[in-house]
Amino acid sequence: MGGDSTSSSRRAAARRSESTEDHLERISELLATKGSARVTDIAVSLGLQRSTVSNMVRRLAARGYVNHEPYQGLSLTAEGRAVARHVRKRHETLTAFFEQLGLESATIAAEVEDIEHHLKPKTLAVFSSLVEFWQERPEQLADFLRFHARNKEG
Predict the structure, then answer these.
(1) pLDDT per residue as tens digits for the range 66-101
(2) 37 φ, ψ to 5°?
(3) Rounded CA gap, 46 and 49, in Å?
(4) CA 118, 2, 126, 103 torsion: positive or negative?
(5) How far apart are CA 117 and CA 84, in angstroms?
(6) Model confidence, pTM
(7) 62 with 8, same domain?
(8) Are 81 and 67 contacting, i.e. CB atoms less than 8 angstroms apart?
């Protein structure tokens, strides 16, 4: 039965759009940093029109991810918090991975935004393991970085 819940969660993740995930991630961030999340704040933060965010909030509420009363702030449901945690963890893993490789922060931000929604769970798990491996064995990360630098020069 455990396989059933895993496959159903994978199907649910596949149905979530990049926009859904971005909105839930931003709502979670706003709740954590400001204590509230309003449509206007989300729109400014994502660089979208207020009406676009309002439409998405209605869809998120209909799908059970957020609680929303018109003209009130938003809160995440348990399911919305779970999705936001998953998205945040994925973002943090990729950011840490690229930081370990010594990429510049602007490059890291662009790369993470470009690929974070397209990774399969198994691929993300490998990146996560590699990040942890290099954290526990910094000498091996240093060996890899020296190897990479030599190959770049040649």
Answers:
(1) 998 777 789 999 999 999 999 999 999 999 999 999
(2) -140, 115
(3) 9
(4) positive
(5) 13
(6) 0.78
(7) yes
(8) no
Kindly report the number of other CB atoms within 10 A of residue 57's CB atom.
Answer: 21
Q: Which two tokens stand for residue 148?
A: 């990479």
Please name the residue that has the structure tokens 């970085």.
Answer: 145
Long-range contacts of 127-132 (CB under 8 A, 24+ apart): 127/93, 127/94, 127/97, 128/93, 130/97, 131/93, 131/96, 131/97, 131/100
Rounded CA separation 7/9 (Å): 5
CATH assignment at residue 110:
1.10.60.10
* CB-CB neighbours of 20 under 10 Å: 19
- Extract the tokens encoding 27: 């709502």
74-76 and 66-68 as β-strands: parallel, antiparallel, unpaired?
antiparallel
Distance of CA 94 to the CA centre of its chain: 9
Measure the CA–CA gap between 133 and 50, rounded to whole angstroms.
43
For the stretch 123-140, pLDDT in tens is: 999 999 999 999 999 999
Which residue range is the domain that position 101 belongs to?
A: 86-153
> Which residue type does 123 have?
T
